[in-house]
Specification:
By secondary structure, the chain is mainly alpha-helical. It has one domain. The chain contains 4 helices and no strands.
Length: 82
Amino acid sequence: MAEPTNEERAARADAALELYCRLTGSSEDDTRLIDLLTDLRHWAARNWHDFDNANFLSEIHFNHEHTTSPQEAEKEAGAKDG
């Protein structure tokens, strides 16, 4: 399976935020992101997950994905599969 593009990743986040807005009635972009992140922190605490570590690791993933061209990502995915 091919790695998703950054555009596809952003579209998935859009879909998650849209669903979250329907569930909460939140509508402003900044507020809905903050509210979702806050709720995720509550979820992580309730389920014994380290939110700060997950956030740290997600930043590393983002930086790698953001600086990797689609061609490089495809090469890396092929190397992992092969």
